[in-house]
């Protein structure tokens, strides 16, 4: 009897509900695995229909078409004399399950349902599927008639069982079961299962790729045996990018691993395993043997098949390897670029249109498109026929073959500097230099004519002309003048995106790219329906700090020296008039009242550490004790949560972006919270104030320099935020401004809490507010002058 088996795990770029394409990629992976000598092939989770079908899993059609695809695959001669399993939804006794379906030579062997649902992060599996809870049990599943007619089988075992061949035994975990605290691979290994198979739908997050590899290695180290992990890769119709990394581990060591990022639709990863190494490893662990002797027995489905051969003595086992993980900068360069490629080729559009301001954010979006072009050229040069076919289809040019990234970028990316009288020469120059080095088709326009036309309409109706604050206008006028510039840019972006390919004598239109980062979304530092509103956003899940590091990496990696000036320049919206010498008087961090480093800290504590205002204060008062007093920390935390609450409504219209950061505020599915808050957080802030009263008397100031904005700066900058609109494109409201009517009241004539009462004094506050709390609330108003 042989002792060495060659097994294959598949990485597939599937697409939700693309049954024809999904079937073709499954068959291609089986063919490649067979040609490379594998006797067993497994694939990713729900590969037949695509993982992101979501509420389509409630439609009978999805189940019907999945069975139809399974029948085509199972009957294909490609699958003869090979043990194969595929992932698909199955309805058993009117309950939907996420399953692996195993077959051999046109006979179904087992339907194994998932036993632990994943409902964390972007996952919502329990909305569509139910976990199988009958451990070590199977039931008879009645096969659809179309299957029975071809296989001659009426039923097949359904449940928690393993497959025993003549020479080994394999069992299944499905995705979340590996992460679960009661992973099934322990029970299966104790019952003699030697090959543990996991089909997964794991998505990318920065700095997280190593976790899956560590889990696979540790599972095979603790339990002994081989662990086979197959994952999806690419954008299958949602905001996540499935990040590949299919792998095979043996006794704690990694034998083979697929790529994390790639444009190829099918990647097969193989390893040859000596079964005797598994047995020797396990029998040497005496405590494991004692436990296994009393382990429960798994139902075994017998398959009359030898995965090994009798003449394998000269076959070499796959040696262990060391696989380096990508740096976060490399992940940003590759992951969002691959996601953009999938979106572009599946959307039917002809390229991208990007408003390029010369700042870090829009430059990052442009550089990611350039990275995509580099990957396309490389894939074509390596002979990827699918990539070549797709790019020719996108460009409507059947003869075109890309040979350099800049030339391809010129065809795919149109960048546009949308200047105004408030734009500096430096940003215009930086945008033009970067576009030239990237190779994009670059244009420059002035938005002043459009802005003046809209202001003319307003003047014709009202007889009034709003002015900037520096020109004598009030805060509301100042903000309106900034927002009109922002929104005009969005409108112009879409008309140019629709018509630029017509101008260039090509069919189709362009996808508008956004460039708002995750921190600005969290803070609400963007204008609703400005250039943050787009078709898709490659950087919407990435922090400002990471984007800066990415541009530093890209400057050298992609030979883009223009990025140096962009990295060094202070972030600014350039929506207010320049100073007399032509220099800026508006910067993002001054507008926000917090640094981007602080904003990342708030975001991680809010989302990853599940901190409300009080808990965040308690964490930061210790972290920042060397720089800030408890009172100053309290003011910063309050400032953040006011801004967050006032602007949370903007997340309901956030442009779809590739998910990359675990503190993303994406309202669509990842960060489920209200979008209408009580912005003064009265109960929560009172708890902070009580704690400050206890801590302030015993606080000893540090001699270290104050690196963060002062509390007064925070109070002033808070007034940029409001539920109506705010932000990247707004400027401070001064609470002392004579143009703000503090006495604004409700329709019934009753002053709002904190508004000026008759006689000039503040209206009486509800009981329970400390003096500090009253003073803080009295200073902070939204842009209409209403205290928050």
UniProtKB/TrEMBL annotation:
Pfam families according to UniProt: CN_hydrolase, NAD_synthase
GO biological process, one term: NAD+ biosynthetic process
GO cellular component, one term: cytoplasm
Top class in the EC scheme: ligase
Pathway annotation from the record: Cofactor biosynthesis; NAD(+) biosynthesis; NAD(+) from deamido-NAD(+) (L-Gln route): step 1/1
Domain of life, source organism: Eukaryota
GO function term, MF aspect, one: glutaminase activity
CN hydrolase domain location: 5-275
Catalytic activity: deamido-NAD(+) + L-glutamine + ATP + H2O = L-glutamate + AMP + diphosphate + NAD(+) + H(+)
Residues making up the signal peptide according to the UniProt record: none
Keywords carried by this UniProt record: ATP-binding, Ligase, NAD, Nucleotide-binding
Region (Disordered): 701-735
EC number(s) given by UniProt: 6.3.5.1
Cross-referenced InterPro entries: C-N_Hydrolase (IPR003010), C-N_Hydrolase_sf (IPR036526), Gln-dep_NAD_synthase (IPR014445), NAD/GMP_synthase (IPR022310), NAD_synthase (IPR003694), Rossmann-like_a/b/a_fold (IPR014729)
UniProt xrefs under HAMAP family: NadE_glutamine_dep (MF_02090)
UniProt similarity note: In the C-terminal section; belongs to the NAD synthetase family.
Protein name as catalogued: Glutamine-dependent NAD(+) synthetase
Organism: Drosophila kikkawai (Fruit fly)
